[in-house]
Amino acid sequence: MTTPSIQRPTTTAFFVQSAISFGLSLVALMVGIVKLPVGAWERGFLGLGLVFVVSSAFTLAKCVRDRQEVEEVTNRVDKARIDKLLIEQDAFKPGQV
User: Could you read off the pLDDT tens digit of each residue along the chain, which spans 97 residues?
Assistant: First the structure.
């Protein structure tokens, strides 16, 4: 059985850096799509691709987070069961080996 890891919360600086990085990359890509020397149909296709990639990235991040939370809950339940069994077993009680 694996022991649950202690998860440290992200710092405000890391959160701000991540948000700014995401915003800048999104704006840069949108500007690049607008400035491309192609027709409106091609721009629309690339724009829809951008929307799809961003939304699927958020969905994937949510799925990974949900799976991690389920594993943490499972680990806590398993640990509680083991702790209960250990508490119920008294090593000094006569008749137990």
Answer: 455 556 677 789 988 999 999 999 999 999 999 999 999 999 999 999 999 999 999 999 999 988 888 888 788 777 888 878 777 776 676 665 5
Q: How far is CA 4 from CA 16, 64, 65, 67, 80, in A?
A: 28, 16, 15, 14, 12
Using alpha carbons only, give the angle 32, 26, 12 rounded to the nearest 5 degrees: 150
Give the total residue count for the chain.
97
- At 69 the three-state DSSP class reads helix
Find the angle CA(26)-CA(28)-CA(29) to the nearest 5 degrees.
65
